[in-house]
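Reopening this one. Same input as before:
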Amino acid sequence: MKINEFINNNRFYNNYKRMWPYVKPIWFRALMSMLICIPIGSLDAVIALALKPYMDLVMVEKQLYSPWYIPLGIVAFTSIQGGLKYLSAYLSTWVGGKITNGLKFELFKKLLTLQTAFFDRKKSGDIVFQFNNQADNACSGLLNNLSVFIQRIFSSISLVCVLFYNSWHLALIAVLVLGCAFLPVAKLQKRIKGVLDKTVVADSAIITEYNEVFAGNKTITSYNLANHEINKFHWILKNIFDLRIKMVQRTQWLSPMMHVIVSVGIAAAIGYGSHLIMTGTITSGNFVSFITALILLYTPVKNIGNNLNSVQLSFYAIEKIFGLLDTIPSIRNKDNAIVLDEKPHIIKYENVSFEYIKNKPVLKDINLTIHEGQTIAFVGNSGGGKTTTVNLLPRFYDITSGSIKINDIDIRDYTLESLRENIAVVFQDNFLFSGSIKDNILLGRESATDAEIQKALQMAYLDEFISTLKDGINTQIGERGILLSGGQKQRVAIARAFLKNAPILILDEATSALDNKAEAVVQKAIENLMQNKTVFVIAHRLSTIRNADLIAVINNGQIVERGTHEELLKIENGAYKALYEMQFKKQEVIIGK
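Same output, byte for byte:
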C-alpha cells in the first residue's frame, strides 16, 4: 500500500503518465533520443580511464612509443560522442516539437469548449500564456533536461566505475561527498513554487499589455496615453525583474554550495590519495586517472541548480496544462442530449432567473412566450438585463433557475451544436476574422454556392460596395476587419447570417453604434434578414422596433411592461412611453412645425 501511495504521489511518475498519450505515437524516436544519451554519457569515462596507462607508461616508465593508441583512441571516442550528441539533439528537438504541437492542439480544442464566462474572467495574456507558452515550457525544458540527466547519470555510473577501478578507498570518499551534495536539492521545490505562480501571472501580464496596445492604439493616441502605458509597462517589467531575482535568490545558492562540497571532496581525495601513493597502494597513473574522473563527475554536479530549476518549471507547466485539460466546462452537452432537428415553433422563458455573481441576481422571474415568425424587442435602461436575456437562449450562459424551452423541451436537453445551429446572432460589434470578405461570409455556411453568396450580398446591400473594390469579394479586410467601416462590417455580419439561414435570429443592438446614414442602409439589410424568422431584437433606438409583435421593457432584471408599440404608449406614466417621448417627442414637435 505504501509503495502504491508513493507512486501515486510521485510527481515525475504522474507527469509521465499524463504525457504518455502524446509520446505514444512517436515512442520509437522518443526512446532512441533517450537511449543515445547512454553512450554519450558513458564515453566521458574514456579520457579518465586512458590516463592511467598513459601516466604509468609515459610519465613514470618513460616508454614514449608504447601507448600510441591512447591519443588516437581518445580522438576516435570523442568524435563518436560528438556525432551521437548531434543525433540526440536532432531527435530531442523533433520529439519535443511533436509533443508540443500535440499539447497545443489539445489545449486549443479545450479552449473552444469553454464557456463565455471563462473568457469574461480572463485576460488575453492569460489565454496566450496558458494555452500556448506553457506547452513550450513543458516540453522543451523537460526533454532537454531529461537528455542531460540521462547523459549525466550514465556518465556518473561510468566515472564511478573508473573511481573504484583506480582506488576503492578514494571512491568511497568521493561517493559520500556526492551524496551530501544532493541533500539540499530536496528543499528546492518548496522554495520556488510560490515564485513560479507569480512569474506566470507576470509573464501573461506583459502579453496582455502588448495586445491592449495593439487593439487600443487609437484610444492611446487620442487620449495621449503613451506615458501612462510606458509607466504601466515599466511596472510590469520591474515586477518580472524582481521575480527573476527572487528566483535566483531561492535557487542559485545551490550551485555555490555544490562548489564548496565538491571542493571538499577533491581536497580529501588529493590528501588521502597522496598518502596512498606514498605507501604504494596506488600508482601515479591510478591517482591521475582517479582525479580526472572525479573532476568530470563533480563538474556537472556543481551546476545542477540550473537544471533542477528548469525541470521544476517544466513540471509546473505540465501540471498547469493538464489542469486546464481536466477542466470540465460548466456549459456542455448533458448525457443523452437530443438533436434539435425540428423547426422551432414556440420558445418559452419560464420563471427564468440568472446571476453572474452568486447572490447578485441580474434577471428575476422572466416569463415570455414567443411563437414562430414573431419579433420580440427588448428595451429598457442600460444594464437592466436585455442582452443577458437573449444571451441565455444560445447558452452563452446557463440560467440560475427556471427554464427556457424550445418546442416545450428545455434547451439544456438539446446538444449545443444543434441548438446553436438554429440561432444566428448579429452583434453590436461583430467580430470579423483576418482574411477576405468571402472568407468571413462563408463562415455562415461553408458549402454555400456562388449564387447563394451573391444573393446574401444583395440582401445585405453589400454588392454595390464590393463592385467598387479591385479584388471584389476576395478583398482582404485585415485583422478584426480593420479596413472596413462600421456599417460595412455590420453588413458583412448580416450577409454571414443570411448564409446561415437559421430560423431564430438575435439582433443585439446591431445599429446603435452607427451614424444615421450607415444605420439606414444596415436597417434595410436587417429587415431583409428578419423575413420568415423568429427574431429577438435588443433595441437602443425605438424607431427600429415599432412594428415588433411584442415589446418587453426590462428594468433592473424584471419585465415591467409588455405589449405592442401602440399598447405600451397608452400606459400612463409607463416606462416605454417615457423612453419613447425622450427620443421622439422633440423630433415630432419640430416636424409638426
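So the earlier flakiness isn't reproducible anymore. For the record, Residues 69-111 form the longest helix (43 residues).
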